[in-house]
C-alpha cells in the first residue's frame, strides 16, 4: 500500500474524495504551484481545442462516439443538423464556421485546472502530500495509515463492537497531527543536511548539535505514537480473529439440530436395515420356492413328452 495524502479532518468528505482522486493536483508545503496563464491552461490545451473544434462543428458523428453512447447519439443528431445547415441554409458555410468558433471556446473552457485544481489551491495547507516527506518520514506515515485502515475496516468495527464513532473521529485526527509533525521533521532534516554541506566548524556545530538532538527526540516521540496506533491495530486484528472463531462456534451450535436429526436418521437407518434384511430373506425364500416350482413344472412338462415317463423315471 503506497503512502496517500493526509488531510485535515476539517476538510469535508466530499472535498476529500475529489482531491484523493487527483493527487497530482495537490500542492506541496513549499507553496502553491503557479497556475500558468489562462487559468492553468497549457499550450497543448489550445492545440487540443483547435483540432477538435472543427470536428464537433462539422463532423460530430466522427468524434462524438469517443465520449460515450449518449454523446454518439447527440453526434448523430448534430451531424444531421450540420448537413441540413450546409445544404439548405443560405450561407451555411459561415454558420458552421461560427459553430466552430463556439466549439473552440467551449472546449478551451473545459480545459485547465478545473474544479479539483481550484479546490486544491483553496485548501493548500490542509493536506500533506508524499512529496513533503523524506524516505524515513514517508515510511512512518505509511505505517500509521495502514494501521488506521486496519482498524476502520475491521469486522469488529463494522459490527459496532468497538467505539466506532470515536475511532472515526480520533484516528483521522491522530493521522493528521502525525503527518504535520513528520512534514516538519522532514523539512528541518533537509535544512540540517544542507547546513552540513556548508562545512564544519565549532560555531556551526554549537548551533546544529542541539537542533539535531531536538530532531532525534521528535522523531523518537512520533515513532512511539505510530507504534501505539499499530499496537491498537494488532489488538483489533486479534479481536477480528476472535469474532471469526465466535461466529464459527455459533454456526456449529446452530447446526446442533441438524446433527441430532442426522443421529435420528441413523437410528431409523438401523431399523430400516433390519426390515430390509427381513425382506431380503423373504425374497430369497420366495426365490427358492419359485425355483422349486419351476423345476417341478419343468419335470412335469417332460413327462408329457413322448417317452417322457421313461426319461422322468
Descriptive report:
The protein has 313 residues and is mostly helical. It folds into 3 domains: 36-112, no CATH class; 133-240, no CATH class; 257-312. Helices cover 77% and strands 1% of the residues. It is built from 13 helices and 2 strands. It has helices spanning 13-21, 37-40, 43-58, 60-63, 69-88, 92-110, 114-122, 135-152, 155-158, 164-196, 202-254, 256-302, 308-312, and strands at 6-7, 127-128. It has a two-stranded antiparallel ribbon with strand order 1-2. Helix 3 runs antiparallel to helix 6, helix 5 (69-88) packs antiparallel against helix 6 (92-110) and helix 10 runs antiparallel to helix 11. The longest helix has 53 residues, at 202-254. The protein is flat, with a radius of gyration of 42 Å. The N and C termini lie far apart (101 Å). Residues 300-306 and 309-313 have low confidence and may be disordered.
